[in-house]
Structure prediction request, 164 residues.
Amino acid sequence: MNIKAAFMAITTFVSVSGAFAHGNEDHPAAARTFDASKVQDTAFGREGDPAKATRTMGVDLADTMRFSPSAITVKRGETVKIVATNRGRLLHEIVIGTPDELSKHADMMRKFPGMEHDAPYMAHVKPGGRGEVVWQFTKAGEFQFACLVPGHFEAGMVGKVTVK
Ligand SMILES: [Cu+2]
Prediction:
């Protein structure tokens, strides 16, 4: 695959929202504005309206390459606000997805380490910072949240979401 084709694949893959960020400065973690007309369904749910979030869940991100808690359970249809706090000294992120999509996405991140990405189902969290993802889990099943900073996913920075 040539570079251009690879880039197109990444763009198609990561940008459910159509947004493709080129710098964190332009996209502070907490500045997402909800726009119901732009919500798109995915295999693991859809962007949630913050006004409809019924629960806030805290998840810590650590340099041990672990999330805490590492597993969450939600009800199908529920909109949750996940507040990710980075307790470490490294950049981390939380990206929700299906196991298959996340591992493909991690491959892309490894091949293009400088790549910035942004979508409603992820938050990049600087050391000491916080990020939020508001997500409605519309499908029952087992999903994951992961940190796709190159090397982190491979080191086991993956958590489980069970939707009942
Ligand atoms: Cu990480």
Q: What stands out?
A: The helical segments are 3-14, 99-111. Strands lie at 46-47, 55-62, 66-68, 71-74, 79-86, 92-97, 122-125, 130-136, 141-146, 158-163. The chain has two helices and ten strands. The chain has a mean pLDDT of 86.
